[in-house]
Every structure is written in structure tokens, then in C-alpha cells.
Amino acid sequence: MRDLTVYSRARRVLLLAIPAALGTRLLPAQNNSDAPDDLRLPNGKKQRDEILKADYEQNLKDAQELTILSRSFEEDLEKDDRFVLSINSLKKLDDIEKITRRIRGRLKRF
Quick check: 61 and 69 in contact, CB under 8 A? Predict the structure, then answer.
């Protein structure tokens, strides 16, 4: 009786494994010729390179804006009392966070 349950389990595993194995063999392989890396612009440059270049330039601009905002926030903190935080300072913190998220999003893209 025990041999019968082992046999039925082995048969069940084989019946489940064979279609999965055939499915992986019959599925078409990924074709890398259609990869976005190979897309070319009309001027002959790779699209990805141009996107990365534009992102880099935008990251530099955002980083400069971030340093200006952080210096301005620091000056506001020095002006304010220890128990007072102006709404303008909170707005600057929100702007700093938005810029940081934009930079992080562009860096994580590729």
C-alpha cells in the first residue's frame, strides 16, 4: 500500500513537471535586437545616451537649486528663535524634498 502512494505521488509530480518543462522550451526566447538600448535617433546617436545626458544636466541644475535652498533654509533657521519655525521654512523643506525625489527618480531609472 505504501508503494502505491509513493508511486502516485511520483506520477503526480511528473504530470505537473512535464507541462512546465515543455512550456519553458516552447516559449520564444527574448530577442535582444528589440531592446531599447539599440534605438537610434535620426542624428545617429543612441537614444539612451541622450536621455542619460539630459538627466545628468537636469541633475546638476537640481543639485544647484538644492544647495541654494538648503543655504537659505539654514539662514532662516539662524534668524528664527528656537521655538519658532516659519511657514516659509517649512515650504523650503518641502521643496528640498521634492527636488531630492526628482533626482533620486532620475538616478534609479537606468
Answer: no
Select from 101, 98, 76 the least CA-distant residue to 87. Answer: 76
Q: pLDDT by residue (tens digit) across 74-96?
A: 999 888 887 888 899 999 999 99
Are 14 and 20 contacting, i.e. CB atoms less than 8 angstroms apart?
Answer: no
Write out pLDDT tens, residues 48-84.
Answer: 999 999 999 999 999 999 999 999 999 998 888 878 8
- Give the pLDDT confidence score for residue 54 in this predicted structure: 93
Q: Give 99-103's long-range contacts (Cβ < 8 A, gap of 24+).
A: 99/62, 99/65, 99/66, 99/69, 100/66, 102/62, 103/59, 103/62, 103/63, 103/66
Give me the residues paired with residue 40 across strands.
46
Output the nine-digit C-alpha cell for 73: 533654509
Helix residue spans in 1-110 (DSSP H)? 2-26, 47-79, 87-108
**Domain residues of the chain, as ranges?**
42-108
